[in-house]
Write a structure and sequence with these properties.
seven-stranded antiparallel sheet, Jelly Rolls, globular, signal, hydrolase activity, 2 helices, ConA-like_dom_sf, mainly beta, Glycoside hydrolase family 16 protein, 309 residues, eight-stranded antiparallel sheet
C-alpha cells in the first residue's frame, strides 16, 4: 500500500473514532492500475507513486522547448507555450498522481510540460489487440478562465522520432483531447497525407462525447483506445469510462495509408497540456488563451497502462 493510500485510511479511521486530525482536505483520488481482464496482459504501466515534487520515472522522456530539434515550430500545432522540466510544470504530487501545470509569467509567457514514453513499440500483434488507457482529470477550469487549455493523452508512430516531418503518415491515435474547458472528450485518428487524404487532414477522423456522470473537469475519468486485429477487418475504438463513442475500421482508410500506420515497430505514448494551438472548436475557433485565461490548473494523471492480448 502506498503512503498516500495509508494516509486516507488512517484519516477515515480517525474520523470514525471522533479523533482530531491536523488536516481536513483529502488528496485527489488515486487508484491502482486495474488488473488485466481475462485474456489480456499488462505490458506497461505507471501509477505515479513517487514523492511530492519528484519527476516522472525513467520510463518517460520530458520534452522541452518549442519543438523537437529540427522539427516543426511550435510542435507543429501552433501552441504558444514553452515546455520545461521545472517541477512547477511537471512533478508527481505524492498522492499517486502526476501533475502537468501550465503557468504564465508576468510578461504573459506560458510554460507547461509534455512527456513521452521511452518505449516506442506499443502496438497490436497480428491477430491480437492492444488497449491504451489512462485515468486522469483534465484541468479543473471552465468558461473564459479555460480558454486555450488543451490537455491530451495520445500516441505517435515511432518512425516520427527519426524524421519529425513524416506526420501524419506514421499514424497518430489521440486517446483523449479536451479543449477550452468544455465537458467533452475527443478521440481522433490522424493518418495518410496532409492536407486531405482518407483521414481528412489536418482535422483527422474524430468523435467526441461528454464525460459520464461528473464533468471531465470535475473528476477523474478513464480514457481508453483499442486497436483490434482479431477479426477479418481491423478496427480502432475509443472509450470514456467504458463507454465507446468512436471507431474507425480498416476498410474506411486507403489500404496504403493503413499499411503505413500499422506496419512499423509501434507507437510511443504522450501526455501534455498545451496552451493554444490549432484544435478546431466549432464556433469558438481554436484553442486560444486570452487575458482572462487562468494559469495554474493542472492535469492530474493517476495511471497509464497498456494491455495486450
Amino acid at each position: 500500500m502506498t503512503a498516500s493510500r495509508m494516509r486516507r485510511r488512517v484519516a477515515a479511521a480517525s474520523l470514525s473514532l471522533g479523533l482530531s486530525i491536523a488536516w481536513v482536505s483529502m488528496p485527489p483520488a488515486a487508484a491502482d492500475i486495474p488488473p488485466p481482464d481475462e485474456g489480456w496482459t499488462l505490458t506497461f504501466g505507471d501509477d505515479f507513486t513517487g514523492g511530492a515534487g519528484s519527476p516522472p520515472s525513467p520510463d518517460w522522456i520530458i520534452d522541452t522547448g518549442t519543438s523537437y530539434p529540427g522539427g516543426p515550430d511550435n510542435w507543429g500545432t501552433g501552441e504558444v507555450q514553452t515546455y520545461t522540466d521545472d517541477p512547477a510544470n511537471i512533478a508527481q504530487d505524492g498522492n499517486g498522481n502526476l501533475q502537468i501545470t501550465p503557468l504564465r509569467d508576468d510578461s504573459g509567457n506560458w510554460t507547461s510540460a509534455r512527456i513521452e514514453t521511452q518505449r516506442g513499440d506499443f502496438k497490436a500483434a497480428e491477430g491480437g489487440a492492444v488497449r491504451i488507457e489512462a485515468r486522469l482529470q483534465v484541468p479543473n477550469t471552465t468558461g473564459d478562465a479555460a480558454l486555450g487549455y488543451w490537455p491530451a493523452f495520445w500516441a505517435l508512430g515511432s518512425p516520427y522520432r527519426d524524421n519529425y516531418w513524416n506526420w501524419p503518415g506514421i499514424g497518430e491515435f489521440d486517446v483523449m483531447e479536451n479543449v477550452n474547458g468544455k465537458n467533452e472528450t475527443h478521440g481522433v485518428l490522424h493518418c495518410d497525407v496532409s492536407p486531405g487524404g482518407s483521414c481528412n487532414e489536418t482535422t483527422g477522423l474524430g468523435g467526441s462525447s461528454p464525460c459520464p456522470g461528473e464533468t471531465c473537469q470535475a473528476g477523474f475519468h478513464t480514457y481508453r483506445f483499442e486497436w483490434d486485429r482479431t477479426g477479418d477487418v481491423e478496427e480502432l475504438r475509443w472509450y470514456v469510462d467504458g463507454q465507446q463513442f468512436h471507431s474507425v475500421r480498416e476498410d474506411q482508410i486507403a489500404p496504403t495509408a493503413w499499411q503505413n500506420m500499422t506496419s512499423h515497430d509501434g507507437y510511443f505514448l504522450l501526455l501534455n497540456v498545451a496552451m493554444g494551438g490549432a484544435f478546431p472548436d466549432g464556433d469558438a475557433g481554436f484553442a486560444t488563451p486570452t487575458a482572462s485565461t487562468e494559469p495554474g490548473h493542472p492535469m492530474l494523471v493517476d495511471y497509464v497502462a497498456v494491455y495486450n492480448r
